[in-house]
Amino acid sequence: FYFKEPLVIYVARNPKDVAVSFFHFHNFSNFLENQESFDDFLNKFLHGNVFGSSWFDHIKDWYSHKHEFDFLYITYEEMIKDLRSSVLKISHFLGKKLDDKTVDMIVENGSFKNMKNNPVANSERFSSEYFERSKGSFLRKGKVGDWKNIFTVAHNEKFDEFYWKKMKDVPLDFIWDLCE
Question: What GO molecular-function term can you cite, just one (predicted)?
Fold first, then answer.
């Protein structure tokens, strides 16, 4: 038997926006514990005491094994900033040559606005037993840097200190705001 090396596309998002998004997801989901306070939730998030475990451990584990796979690391922020370039990067990684019309279609359908309006992508197809639609939507804002609207100065300082301790040995860069 011939086994081809697996291709892994790892999409990461800056963890401050992940924390904010996940906080809202918790309050929108009927199957996760409702979170009254962002302060309490942020503590749980930093220490991996949330559904799915630790963001930090997940990204560090995948990064430490990247040499075992044909591995493409891409960020959500890159895709928001320039979806066309991201589509081309992914298609190149997959060894697929896409014509301009196909790339245009992927970019159009992959835009946040169109994904938010697509029942296949926005969770409309899931039963209301899973999501409380009156509390929000599966695809909320899609903004880079929205954490600045939720984090206090104290949250940011605490997060940064925790982040740099946990991630000091991982040479990954994140876009924290598209104004950077």
Answer: sulfotransferase activity
What is d(CA 134, CA 110) in angstroms, rounded to the nearest whole number? 25
pLDDT of residue 104: 97
Has residue 42 got a pLDDT over 90?
Answer: yes
Query: CATH number of the domain at 7-168, please?
Result: 3.40.50.300
Q: Are 72 and 89 in contact (CB under 8 A)?
A: yes
Length of the chain counted residue by residue: 180
Other beta carbons within 10 angstroms of residue 42's beta carbon come to: 23
Give pLDDT tens digits for 140-179: 778 889 999 999 999 999 999 999 999 998 888 777 776 6
How many other C-beta atoms are found inside a 10 Å radius of the C-beta of residue 147? Answer: 21
Residue 158 structure tokens:
């605490």
> Which residue do the tokens 């949250």 mark?
155
CA gap 112, 73 in Å, rounded: 20
